[in-house]
Amino acid sequence: MRDTARASPRQPPEAEGPGPAAALAPVPATEPPTVPGGRPARARSLLRRCWPPALIILAGLGLWELIVALAHVPAYLLPAPSAIAADMAADWPVLEPALQVTLEEVLLGFAIAAAAGVGLAVLLHLSPIARRAVYPLLIGSQTVPIIVLAPILVILLGYGLAPKLVIVALICFFPIVVNGIDGLRSVDPELIRMMRTLDASRWAILRRVEFPAALPSIFSGLRIAATFAAIGAVFGEWSGSNQGLGYVMLAATPNLLTARIFAAIVLLTAIALLLFGVVSLLERIFVPWAFRGERERSDPR
Amino acid sequence: MSSGTGARADAPAIELADVTKSFGGLTALAGISLSLGQRARTGIVGPSGCGKTTLLQIIAGLLEADSGLVRVGDATTARQRLARCALMPQRDLLLPWRTALDNAVIALENRGVSRAAARERTQPLFEQLGLAGFERAQPGQLSGGMRQRVSFLRTLMADKDVLLLDEPFGALDSITRAQLQEWLSQAMDTVPRTVLLVTHDVDEALLLCQHVVVFAARPGRVVRVLPGGGGFRGSRREIVTSPEFASLKEQALAAIGS
């Protein structure tokens, strides 16, 4: 699953400005051209992108409901979507505190991984010696299935929040670091030469050129990590806990409360989607130029 | 700041003596000697592969020569030269996360000037160079010619004695290039600097520069130094079509062909 960690950064198009010369030369003090695609257009495109997957999900749920009803599948084997929804409502007093616990683990663990991952990426980028020393270890550490560390961490850190944060952070950390380093390294060397002739210090180059240029890549890593975070929290809870959605699932299994397990899965999925959505939103806010480039590219020529 | 070299007024702004540079077994520059006066505009023309860009990078202090003397003002080491020269690359290399004006101010920010102060200092030149109204435009919204203007202004705002222009209009279509040549000629009158312009366009070099150095390739070397038309009066069209210009161009083309 970690092979997906190497998403390519979306670079804005370079040095291919719109050509026509007609708009040039004696420049009148006109308004700068406005950005295409205002808010209504964006809402419409969101709708356009959303309805096909929504349709598939609805069709799948309908089919599921139908099969369960027609084949008389017992609820402890496979509850129908409607039964899961009903259970979620009925079990909300159990599920809600569990959701809060797991959500906290996921968000905090992810935040730790994001800070540590981006920090280490910058550090390894700035120091070639550190990179040569640490990078192979970083790759090597990924051959240890982090999930098997969960019981050990429980022994070390107890049943509380700490071991869950460590597991979530360990799982999320790697794609963030690797994408961060790749992003920082892929900056056009000519850009750095230019900055050097413009009196830029190493710090100024990092801050004004390398880091912004690496942001799309860093966000790719964050988005991948966002999808892993909930998995980490559940494994942490399975290894030893008395609360959280993972614990709810574990406790429901011997009692054959299958609908409750499914309800917990739905909530875990919701957490992952929420985190993914938040990261994507932050990317839109902090890396607007990458999306401008995308829009220009998709314009008909 | 712009005359902080401490050099005598008659000392050359850039002096090269027997500069050589090779990459692996390939000799990029074989004994280049040149002397450029203060505030002079010098063009270098030559075929591709004649080491023009390498020479600019050596003068700018981005590369070290294998042997020979490189002096910019009183600076001889690469590090000192880097502080004296600003290099305008062929591609505009505008940062897409900055507006046009904020791209132009980056050298000031690198020197510790706050962004607000840097904008204030850059604004008048931004307008003088025909960019008024585009301060807040994103680079992606600008035409190729406008981007090159912003790129030139960014180089200018570094406030260096020496501007090294590496085929600044090489990527533009010929009509835009002609407009920008005229524009650059005026810009350099407005803000005089020692300029070294590398180009493969003979017209461009003759039009903008007082001296034109013709390079040959493999190994890169100086073939001839010719007078340019940089001092000619009149519009670009009048100059380019004048018999004097035609005669200069004839000599230059002959030197390149030799």
What attributes characterize this protein structure?
heterodimer, A: 301 residues, mainly alpha, MetI-like fold, 73% helix, globular, disordered N terminus, B: 258 residues, alpha/beta, Rossmann fold, six-stranded mixed β-sheet, three-stranded antiparallel β-sheet, 10 helices, 9 strands, 23% strand
Overall description:
The complex is a heterodimer of chains A (301) and B (258). With 301 residues, chain A is mostly helical. Chain A has eleven helices and no strands. Chain A has a domain at 98-296: MetI-like fold. The two termini of chain A are 38 Å apart. Chain B has ten helices and nine strands. In chain B, β1 (14-23) and β2 form a beta hairpin. In chain B, α8 crosses α10. Chain B is globular. Mean pLDDT of chain B is 86; it is low at 1-7. At the A-B interface, α7, α8 and α11 of A face β5, α4, α6 and α7 of B.
Structural class of chain B: alpha/beta
State the low-pLDDT regions of chain B, or none: 1-7
First and last CA, distance of chain B: 43 Å
User: CATH H level of the domain at 14-91 and 162-257 in chain B: which superfamily?
Assistant: P-loop containing nucleotide triphosphate hydrolases
Overall geometric form of chain A? globular
Q: If you average the pLDDT of chain B, what whole number results?
A: 86
Order of helices and strands of chain A: HHHHHHHHHHH
Number of helices of chain A: 11
SSE pattern of chain B: EEEHEHEHHHHEHEHEEHH
Radius of gyration of chain B: 18 Å
Strand content of chain B: 15-25%
User: What is Rg of chain A?
Assistant: 24 Å
Mean pLDDT of chain A: 84
Number of strands of chain A: 0
CATH architecture of the domain at 14-91 and 162-257 in chain B: 3-Layer(aba) Sandwich
